[in-house]
Specification:
Helix content: over 70%
Strand content: under 5%
CATH architecture: Up-down Bundle
Number of domains: 1
Number of strands: 0
Distance between the termini: 37 Å
Shape: globular
Radius of gyration: 19 Å
Structural class: mainly alpha
CATH class: Mainly Alpha
Length: about 300
């Protein structure tokens, strides 16, 4: 999937034409992806988290301190003179976790229930934290109110995921038969989101080409630093966090829903503000995939050694 995202992004940017869509279409497409997520979400797994409130609290605390602080510091340190780009970087670190975080946690042998439960808390926290994190950014174009952001979250995130969960409850047999189709639908829809966002932002990207390498470096550290800091924090013995939970929290902290960040950037700030989110999306999916597969192989090797002994 990360490779497909990169290919679609490059093809869209370099081709002389792309799908011309209204500004609300990417929001609708992301809502469709989140609807598919709600449709396939394991509700019973979330219920299991009732006995692990402490770990859920740790995951939420680390996400909304480490990730936000790293994003704000990087934005002000490297792009204080470019408020729109700084705002895009901050947005990329103050949205809920990415749906891919659950998939990568599963591949790595982590606690997917923890990621799913923490994502619900993210949805409630993000509309409050995001406007506060943007307060220090200069510029008349960088202003997002809590109510405008909450409205977007309701339409793009809360309503679709609620509809998905309701359909899962009311039509379980139909949902069970459509699992493979929803996964394919989510992938195709995400690629369409990339295509439409890149297509609409071609001019903005072309005008900021000289800054793309620096934005890429900043996005790389924005993804990796929270994961590294969270990992070493969770390894502290007095926290008593199990290995499966550590894997889940690392993905939860590092992988944000930057498709949502890009859409919010375009809607509330400018197309230029969406550039950091687009680059972050490619990096977090690529690094997440690499890390998930690496941890999966480690887990398999450990289990094989245990069985051999």
């Amino acid at each position: 999937m990360p490779l497909l995202i990169i290919i679609v992004a490059f093809i869209t940017y370099f081709l002389p034409f792309h799908l011309q869509v209204a500004n609300w279409v990417p929001s609708l497409l992301l809502g469709l992806v989140i609807f598919f997520t709600g449709l396939s979400m394991n509700v019973e797994a979330i219920k299991k988290m009732r006995s692990k409130y402490n770990v859920l609290g740790i995951a939420t605390f680390l996400k909304w301190t480490i990730t936000v602080i790293v994003s704000v510091v990087l934005a002000h340190l490297f792009f204080s003179s470019r408020p729109e780009i700084a705002a895009g970087i901050i947005l990329s670190g103050t949205v809920p976790n990415a749906t891919a975080a659950t998939l990568y946690t599963f591949i790595a042998g982590g606690n997917t229930s923890l990621v799913i439960a923490a994502s619900f808390l993210d949805i409630m926290i993000s509309p409050i934290v995001t406007p506060l994190a943007l307060l220090g950014v200069d510029g008349d174009t960088v202003r997002i109110s809590f109510f405008n952001l909450l409205q977007s979250f309701i339409l793009i995130v809360i309503l679709p995921i609620t509809l998905g969960l309701l359909m899962q409850k009311k039509l379980p047999q139909l949902v069970e038969k459509s699992v493979s189709y929803t996964k394919l639908g989510s992938s195709i829809t995400l690629l369409l989101i990339i295509h439409t966002i890149i297509g609409n932002a071609k001019g903005a990207i072309a005008s900021e080409l000289i800054l793309i390498p620096m934005i890429t470096i900043v996005a790389f550290f924005q993804v990796t630093l929270p994961m590294v800091i969270a990992y070493f924090t969770l390894k502290l013995k007095w926290l008593r966090v199990e290995k499966e939970d550590i894997k889940a929290i690392v993905f939860h902290v590092g992988l944000c829903n930057t498709a949502l960040a890009a859409i919010l950037a375009i809607e509330f700030i400018s197309e230029i503000a969406a550039i950091p989110a687009i680059i972050n999306m490619v990096i977090n999916l690529s690094l997440g995939s690499f890390l998930a597969n690496y941890l999966s192989k480690q887990t398999s090797s450990t289990e094989w050694i245990k069985q051999a002994n």
